[in-house]
Amino acid sequence: MEHVALDLTGLVRKVDSTPFARGGFADIWMGELSWLITSPVQQVAIKVPHVTSKHLRGTERQEVERRLERELKTWRMLRHPNILPLLGTCKDLGTFPFALPLPSMITEYCPLGTLADYLVEHDEPIDDLAMIHDIASAIVYMHELDSPIVHGDLKAENILISKNRTPRVSDFGLSRAVKNSDAPTGYTTSSFHGSMRWMSPELHQADDNGRPPPFTPASDTWAFGMVILEIEACEIPWSHIIHEPAVILAVMRGNTPPLPKNKTIAPALWALMQECWKQDPAERVSMRDLMSRIDLLKFQRDVQDPSSPIGQRSLSSSSSIRSRSSSILSSPVTQALSLESNSIHDADTVLARARRAFTQRDAPLARQLYSTAAAAFASASHQLRHAQTLAELARVDKPNVVHIWKLQWKS
């Protein structure tokens, strides 16, 4: 479903004399949005394109305008808590000389800047797995739309951090629309080079006409592995290689970034990153599976790490949790259902019943059914489904789910 971007012309004003960020395609200004004279002023960011007619010939100009409009249409469609929301557009803020008549884009203002800046400038610890999961969920959402959308330029610089420290994926190909056009060299090359370190091997191979291949979900997965590396190592991919042509050569030779020195990355997470960097796109992990495995890693960490909030809850009330979980697992309903949950198919049936009970607000029954399904997945060594079921159980019974996980995987 396409959403229509609001026309905010006349309701937004710039508050500074210079932009606070510049890019190859647009300048970013601080702005204020006033819906009504009596309503509070909302702080916003204004993305003002500065694609100029003097850089482009007739057909090239039409191509740029067409692609920019298509990307703006794409952004209008996206509704996700980890995607930067497009509030609307303005037609009266583009003051760049010779500028094409393109609308400025009004977005949420993210005072903590890009993820790349945030990782370097803020000393407080972050929940890296939660951050990775949230970003992945936005990409999964895009990939699984009825008309799937590929981001094509995933990197920490294109992920913003909101005031409540929520990651927001941004830059949906607006600069890419320009740099993939036939605009003269020098106008687009620098922007294109800026993403070389995140690009998968197949994107470095041109066809017989010299055109690069299209971005795909698999190329997004490769780039996402590089984003994980940025989060874990606080440095750009291939940081040990200065010149980008050498990066391309390393990628084409089948190399992947080495394990960062003086940085601790969990072996399971590093192994998952390697699955993002398979040379064959068909062999790379899907973003859906990647997100599920991040869920599992996060859950295992929270259970095993006493310093985490979930770990503290589980340790502080272990005796009561053991009593409650034992009563749940030994209840007549659970025992009866366990007879039919020896296969994944039966476990799925029980899980469907649990979801129905939860929807009907029958918490006791939902708790029992979720516990049974989780036990069946655990006995079948189906860790991903087990973690997903426990995540749903947590909505019903957060303290109990931790101990159930321990009982099932230690038995």
From TrEMBL:
Cross-referenced InterPro entries: Kinase-like_dom_sf, Prot_kinase_dom, Ser-Thr/Tyr_kinase_cat_dom, Ser/Thr_kinase_AS, Ser/Thr_Kinases-Pseudokinases
One Gene Ontology MF term: ATP binding
Highest taxon of source: Eukaryota
Keywords linked to the UniProt accession: Kinase, Transferase
Domain annotation Protein kinase: ranges: 14-297
Name of the protein: Tyrosine kinase family catalytic domain protein
